[in-house]
Amino acid sequence: MAWRDTLEGRINGDGRIIVRKPSKDGVTREVRGAVELELVPTESEYRIRRFRIQED
Predict the structure, then answer these.
(1) 33 with 54: CB under 8 angstroms?
(2) How confident is the model at residue 18 (pLDDT cuts 50, 70, 90)?
(3) CA dist., res. 49 & res. 39, Å (int)
(4) Which stretches of the chain are DSSP H helices?
(5) Which of 15, 1, 9 is nearest to 40 (CA)?
């Protein structure tokens, strides 16, 4: 992930993701793609405002 701070205090990140998910037939499916994440500050921590995965 590459992270960037904004002037408003938000943190934006983007990078690559791999998600593995077992199916009912016992075969594990692997999804690869790009991920974007935006975190916004709260009183004591951050919360996720946007989370997007674009599958390859």
Answers:
(1) yes
(2) very high
(3) 6
(4) none
(5) 9
Q: What is the DSSP letter of 44?
A: S
For residue 34, give every residue at least 6 positions away whose Cβ sits within 8 Å of its Cβ, in sequence order, or none: 14, 15, 16, 17, 53, 54, 56
Q: Which residues contact 8 (CB under 8 A, 6 or more apart)?
A: none
Residue in the block written with tokens 């992270």: 3
- Integer angstrom CA distances of residue 9 from 6, 36, 38, 39, 48: 5, 17, 11, 9, 13
pLDDT of 55 > 90? The answer is: yes
